[in-house]
Amino acid sequence: MSAARWAGPAALAAGIGVVIAAPYVLPSYVVSLLTLTFIAGLLAGSVNLLAGQAGLVSIGHAGIAAAGAYGVAWATVHGLGLPAALGVAAAVTLAVSVVYALTTMRTSGIVFLMITLALGITVFGLALKLPSVTGGQNGLTGIRRPGLVEEWWTFYFFSAAVYGLCLLALAALSRSPFGLMLRGVRESQSRMTSLGYSVPAVKFAAVLASGAFAGCAGVLLAWNSEFLSPSAASFPRSALAVVMVIVGGTGTLLGPLVGAGIVVAAEYWLSSYLERWPTALGVVLILVVLYAPRGIVGGLHELLAQRSPRPRKEGS
Amino acid sequence: MNPRRWKGRQPAARLLLVVLALSLAAAACAPDEDSGGGDGGGTVKLGFISPVTGFVAALGTDMRRGWEMYWQQNGGKAGDVTVQTVYEDDTGDPEVALTKARRLVEQQQVQLVAGPILANTAYAVAGYVAGRGLPTVQMTGADDLTQRKFNPLVLRVGYTSSQSNFPAGQWAYDEGHRTAVTICPDYAFGWESCGGFVSAFVKAGGTIDKQVWHPLGTQDFSTYAAQARQADPDVVFIGSAGGPDAIQFYKAWTGLGLKDRIPLVGNCCFADQVFLREVGDEALGLQSFTYWSEGRDAPLVRSFVQAYEQQHNEIPSLYAAGAYTMAQVIAEALKKTGGKIEGADFINAARQVSLSDSLYGALTFDDTNNVVGPVYLTQVDRRDDGTLWSVVEETFPEVSQFGTEGKEAFLEHPVFSREYTGQ
Question: Which helix (DSSP H) or strand (DSSP E) does residue B212 occupy?
Answer without folding.
Answer: strand B207-214
